[in-house]
Amino acid sequence: MTVVTVALGSSIIPNTPSCVFWCNYPNDVNAGASYCCINSNNNIIENTNPQGNPGRCIKHSFCARFERKPVTPIRCGHDDYCPNNEKCCYDACLEHHTCKAPLPH
């Protein structure tokens, strides 16, 4: 018996843009695995500040949703994507890095 599979009108391999910046999940989320946080469809910004913006990220491994006015987050690969008063931190609700207000050191 021979089985033939035919795909009509679609590509089997999706057309995905190449990754230009990889981020790491927090250690308690996906064991710190890497994921593509900025691809060639995003505005690519060079990382010129290796120290990053001041402050530290709030560590959340779970989504603590609460009611508030919706804000469109800035997706980021490092602090240079963010305003000087924010840091590029993992967002447990969105499951990727976004610019957020930091905690002081």
Q: What's the rounded overall pLDDT mean?
A: 76
Element string (H = helix, E = strand):
EEEE
Low-confidence stretches: 1-15
Overall helicity: under 10%
Task: Provide the number of structural domains.
Answer: 1
Identify the overall geometry.
globular
Q: What strand line-up does the widest sheet have?
A: 1-2
SSE layout:
Elements: E1 19-24, E2 34-39, E3 87-91, E4 96-100
Antiparallel strand pairs: 1-2, 3-4
How would you sum up this structure, described in words?
- The protein is an all-beta fold.
- The protein has one domain.
- It has no helices and four strands.
- It has strands spanning 19-24, 34-39, 87-91, 96-100.
- A hairpin with a 4-residue loop joins strand 3 and strand 4 (96-100).
- It is globular, with a radius of gyration of 18 Å.
- Residues 50-103 form the WAP domain.
- This is Putative crustin-like antimicrobial peptide 16.
Q: How would you summarize what this structure contains?
A:
The protein has 105 residues and is mainly β. The chain has one domain (17-105). It has strands spanning 19-24, 34-39, 87-91, 96-100.
Short descriptors:
single chain; 105 residues; mainly beta; two-stranded antiparallel sheet; two-stranded antiparallel ribbon; 0% helix; disordered N terminus; WAP_dom; peptidase inhibitor activity; Putative crustin-like antimicrobial peptide 16
